[in-house]
Every structure is written in C-alpha cells, then in structure tokens.
From TrEMBL:
It comes from Cladophialophora immunda. One of its GO terms (molecular function) is metal ion binding. Its cofactor is Fe cation. InterPro entries: Phytyl_CoA_dOase-like. Belongs to the PhyH family. This is Fe2OG dioxygenase domain-containing protein. Keywords: Iron. Pfam families: PhyH (PF05721). It comes from the Eukaryota.
C-alpha cells in the first residue's frame, strides 16, 4: 500500500510537471516535516519582505513542511502584501491561487542571503511550483532582492538581429551587441558530411545498445550524446583544427580555456522547449558582469524556427536580465542558418532548445562549450576519457580537456608550473615515516 508521502509526491509530480520538466527535484523532501525553529525563521523572513511582494502580483501559497501550516500570501495589490497561516484550507480562498509553492524552510534563509538565484533554484528542485512557475521565480526574486529585468523582445529590432556571414568582424560585433552571432561556412562540405554521418551512426548505435540519453519533454524525443571526443576522430579533428575556434577562443577566454562539455543535441518532433537558461547558471550566486564561457554550436542541417532552432533572448547577456518565467519563450527568436553554420554565443545569453514542429525531421547540432580555466567543467574528462585515447591527442586537445596546468590550477602533487601537461601518477606519495592512526 502506498504511503501518504508517496501519494503526495505523486500528486506533486503530476500537477507540477512544468516546474520539473527534467525531473531534477526530489519531491519527497517537500512532504517531510520541518524543524520548528527553521519554520518560524522562514515565516519571519517572508513577512519582512511583504512590502516588496507586489512584484509577484498573485495570490499564492507557500508550504514549508508537512507538520506546519502553509502560508497564504496575497500580493495582488500594489501596496504591502498580506500573509496568513492556512489553518483551515476549506475557509481559505485557495481556488483563486495562481500557484502552490513548496520549499524547505532553510532555503528561505539562503534566498534572503542571496546565495542562489530563483531560476537555478527552480530548475534544480530547491523550490517547486504547482501552477504558475512565474510566481515561484518572482517570489524568490523578492527574497533575494535580485531586481531582475525581463528581456522583453522589441519587434523593431528583428531586422537588425545577427544573420549568418563569413565576415568574422561582423560576427564579433554581433556577439558583443546581441550576445550571439553566426559564422557561415564554418564547416567545409567535407567536414560537414563526415560529421553528419558519424553523429547519425553514433546516435543510432547508442539507441540500439540501450545507452542512449533522451530528453525534451514527457515523451523524451530528443537525443543527446555526451563526450564526443570519445566517439570518433571526426570530433577530435573538429576540436583540433576548426578555424572558428581559433578565431574566437583566445580573444574571449584567453589561451588556456578548457572544455566544459562536448555534446550533440538532436531535436525531434514532439519535443518541448527547454527551460530558458544561461550557460553559467551553475555559478551561484549569479555573476552577470563577467562572461565565463563561450559556446560554439555547429549546424549539421539547415536550422529554422520550424525544426527546433535554438531560442534566444537577444541582448540578454549584459545587465541584470533574467526571464520572469523560464518556461515562457514568447520573447525569444529562433537561431536560424544553413548547414555548416556555427552559432557563437556567450555564456550569459538566455536561451533554450526550440520546439521541432516539422514532422519526420531531425535537428542535429554539435555543441562545443568552453570555460575559463578556473571553472569546474560539466564533464569529469579524466574519468570519462576512453582508455588509450590520451596518448594520441594533440597538446591543443589535451589542454581543452584539462591536462594543461594554468598558474597554480590543475597540477598533480603540487607540480603546477604554468603551461605544463600533467598525467595520472602511477605511484602517488602515500603514508611515509610511520603508521597512520585510524580515525574512529
């Protein structure tokens, strides 16, 4: 027989699917009891922010644990919001609520301390919403005092937005102004053909072997492929020799940039738009005045708005910009270009995988994402590198994978001379000079 926690968790999952499209949330934790002191502190902190809660512009509940009353917050008026405990759900105006929010009370303190952004919190399950996800975002924004500006799309700029061009100077100007640009013919016809075939074969092989990775909504039609450097010389050659990487990486990230991730994304019909995010969203608290990374997306087919072109919020890479609702893509435009194009975009740009609405089509892209050398990469390359591959890699590629030390970063056993290449030690220095004392 299912427990009450299991039943409640199932309800949260069913009703709040939009807030957990990637199933990152541990929903059971929201149904657990909470400590009295943490609950009381959370209530006081929320109450201290009621004078700014009008930014949420909604009637909503906040649930802080199964053993304490929920809170009903009315922020529908321009003045100070009101808050009351829900002692009897039948007597509360719950039918008019825009959202039911679930959060552990200790997280309220963290939000007020400003250590975590609302969009990161929602995507990674630190707050959960049944109903309007925008309410969760603006509620946390008020707590953090992060006065985010929603990047509203101005129709008058549509004709001025970046277009594919071979003029590298123009692409760099577009990157600076809009946060993205397109290099036309970034792949030669021969490179394009080789990459198309290798990726198609690899995707089919992983699916047939039962090791494929699928996402993109409830039916999970999209396929992602990880660690492309393991999956064919064609992908290593792209890292080693592509002219666009050489033209854009050093000026933007220096000579020691490391590979954060090396993936492919095949968007297929029936997928849901990805949540809007930046590629430095994992840097918490958010830092908006520095771009830490640069992304290169190679189009392996003609990309259009209809077959899943990446959705972007133009110009959202500078300033205090952040979407009010990361699941609302109405203020986005689709990145479009012919096969062989490379979309270059920086890590602060708000963007998302677009919906593929073309029956029977696939939208394959290769995504090469670099970060500054002091940022921890998404992929632990030392563990995921295919055995025997290291010996055949060029210094350039090994540098991208983190084998090159930079300053005092990336050394082995204290040896961190700048620019040297490291390798796993066969005999690391262990316990010497007597026996170690076991820790009880």
């Amino acid at each position: 027989m299912a427990t009450q926690t299991q039943v409640t968790t199932s309800r949260l999952k069913a009703l709040g699917a939009a807030a957990d499209i990637n199933q990152n949330a541990n929903l059971a934790k929201f149904t657990e009891p909470s400590a009295d002191d943490e609950y009381d502190n959370a209530v006081q902190l929320i109450e201290s922010k009621l004078d700014k809660m009008a930014a949420v512009d909604a009637l909503f509940t906040v649930n802080l644990g199964s053993n304490h009353p929920g809170l009903l917050v009315d922020a529908r008026n321009s003045g100070r919001a009101t808050m009351s405990q829900i002692t009897d759900r039948q007597q509360c105006d719950l039918e008019s609520c825009s959202a039911d929010l679930y959060v552990r009370p200790h997280m309220i303190q963290r939000f007020v301390d400003g250590v975590m952004d609302a969009r990161y919190a929602l995507n990674w399950g630190h707050i959960f919403a049944i109903g309007a996800t925008r309410v969760a975002i603006k509620f946390v924004d008020v707590l953090t005092s992060f006065e985010a500006i929603h990047p509203k799309l101005d129709p008058s700029i549509i004709d001025k937005l970046p277009r594919p061009t071979e003029d590298v100077g123009q692409v760099k100007a577009d990157l600076s102004k809009w946060g993205y640009g397109f290099v036309k013919n970034a792949l030669s016809p021969e490179e394009l053909q080789k990459l198309q075939k290798r990726l198609k074969d690899q995707a089919r092989g992983e699916a047939e072997a039962g090791v494929g990775f699928f996402d993109g909504g409830e039916t999970m039609p999209n396929q992602r492929l990880w660690c492309l450097h393991n999956k064919g010389q064609e992908f290593i050659d792209l890292l080693d020799h592509n002219k666009v990487l050489k033209q854009f990486l050093p000026p933007h990230l220096g000579d020691d940039a490391i590979l954060f991730s090396y993936t492919a994304n095949i968007a297929r019909p029936g997928n849901s738009p990805m949540y809007l995010h930046t590629d430095q969203l994992t840097i918490q608290p958010p830092i908006r005045n520095i771009n830490f990374g640069l992304n290169f997306m190679f189009f392996l087919t003609d990309i259009t708005a209809e077959n899943g072109g990446t959705l972007v919020m133009p110009g959202s890479h500078t300033g205090n910009f952040a979407p009010d609702d990361p699941y609302d893509v109405s203020d986005c435009v689709a990145a479009e270009g012919p096969a062989g194009t490379c979309m270059v975009f920086e890590s602060r740009l708000w963007h998302a995988t677009g919906p593929n609405r073309t029956p029977g089509s696939e939208r394959p892209v290769i995504i090469v994402f670099f970060m500054r050398p002091f940022i921890r990469p998404q992929e632990n390359f030392f563990f995921s590198l295919r055995p025997g591959l290291e010996e055949n890699l060029s210094d350039r590629v090994k540098g991208f994978l983190g084998y090159r030390s930079t300053g005092s970063i990336g050394g082995v056993e204290g040896k961190t001379k700048d620019g040297t290449f490291v390798k796993k030690l066969e005999n690391p220095v262990g316990i010497l000079g007597g026996e170690s004392v076991p820790l009880n």
